[in-house]
């Protein structure tokens, strides 16, 4: 049962992450919030989504191989 809950938690996090972030962007736009809050959402995406870290690591490795 614990594995099933873990699977549902991971799928929920994976499928709801970007819609929630887009919703936050839209809410900030409607509320006419300061641009810094949008920047904070972008920073949260870069920090919380592991794929961006992997892409940055691969880009650095490719850059180092070119030299």
The pLDDT mean sits at 93
Helical residue percent band: over 70%
Tally of helical runs: 3
How many strand units? 0
Query: What general outline do the C-alpha atoms trace?
Result: flat
Distance between the termini: 51 Å
Main pleated sheet: none
Task: Sketch the topology as an H/E string, one letter per element.
Answer: HHH
Give descriptors for this structure.
3 helices, 67 residues, mainly alpha, single chain
Short characterization:
The chain has helices at residues 2-30, 35-48, 50-66. It has 67 residues and is mostly helical.
Folded structure, characterized:
By secondary structure, this protein is mostly helical. 90% of the residues lie in helices and 0% in strands. The protein contains 3 helices and no strands. The protein has helices at 2-30, 35-48, 50-66. Helix 1 packs antiparallel against helix 2 (35-48) and helix 2 (35-48) packs across helix 3 (50-66). It is flat and about 45 Å long.
């Amino acid at each position: 049962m614990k594995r099933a809950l873990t699977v549902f938690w991971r799928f929920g996090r994976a499928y709801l992450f970007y819609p929630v972030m887009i919703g936050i962007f839209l809410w900030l736009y409607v509320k006419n919030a300061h641009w810094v809050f949008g920047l904070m959402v972008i920073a949260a995406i870069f920090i919380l989504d592991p794929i961006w870290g992997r892409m940055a690591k691969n880009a650095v490795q490719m850059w180092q191989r070119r030299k």
